[in-house]
Specification:
Floral homeotic protein; DNA-binding transcription factor activity; TF_Kbox
Length: about 120
């Protein structure tokens, strides 16, 4: 019977005092629900901010690694140019780099498979 009252059914037989009591119960329940929802949203926002910070730190680290490798390649190219100035030799291939794999990074290399759908 109480559940029907909570659903707004069978209210005709209730006295004004009973209706006021039901309204207070519903208000209290609604406040608890809103409080719980807000706490879950707050926790979710905090977790997303933590993940964002970790991704930004990793992005910064990877950018630094890229710049360092570019500087090494530039120095190697300059050294090669100085050693082979005027000899018309092709430049050496770039050194093999270890591929950095991370769950947040997407590969920029084309896939050998055609992805349909």
């Amino acid at each position: 019977r109480n559940q029907r009252h909570y659903l707004g059914e069978d209210l005709q037989a209730m006295s004004p005092k009973e209706l006021q009591n039901l309204e207070q119960q519903l208000d209290t329940a609604l406040k608890h629900i809103r409080s719980r929802k807000n706490q879950l949203m707050y926790d979710s926002i905090n977790e997303l901010q933590r993940k964002e910070k970790a991704i930004q730190e990793q992005n910064s680290m990877l950018s630094k690694q890229i710049k360092e490798r570019e500087n090494v390649l530039r120095a190697q190219q300059e050294q090669w140019d100085e050693q082979n100035h005027g000899h018309n030799m092709p430049p050496p291939p770039p050194p093999q780099q270890h591929q950095i794999q991370h769950p947040y990074m997407l590969s920029h290399q084309p896939s050998p498979f055609l992805n349909m759908g």
